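All the exercises in this workshop are built on plain-text protein records. A record pairs a protein's sequence with a compact description of its fold. The structure tokens are whole numbers drawn from a learned vocabulary of backbone shapes. Once this layout is familiar, the rest of the handout is easier to follow. An example says more than a description, so a record of this kind follows.
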Amino acid sequence: MLTLGNIFVLMLFATAGAWLWHAHGLRERALERVKQHCAKLDLELLDGNVALRRLTFTRDAQGRKRLARIYNFEFTVTGEQRHPGTITMFGAHTAQIELAPYPFEIKTPPPSAEIIQMNEWRQSHQKLKP
């Protein structure tokens, strides 16, 4: 027979389970946002995961204090060095993604037939003048 104490313990376990299920869903959402951000910047997310660093009260864009989850992750540019990053989530909404300084190379498009170098154009037109 169920007593009031047993029902309380069952409700406590159900609440803890629901909270863990919800937290896992938020972690998966943070992971998806980090993957999108890394893909946009042409970075590689290492280990394919984010790790909860802490739960804290942080100010949002309007200056109000809200409960935030801060996750850590690592990324690489060259495949040789690991760089840390963090993502701050207010519930299911992304507050910010911070990346540590990392080296990157400036990609210049290869010259094509449509691009005319100004120096070459000047030299060819100076020869044509009498």
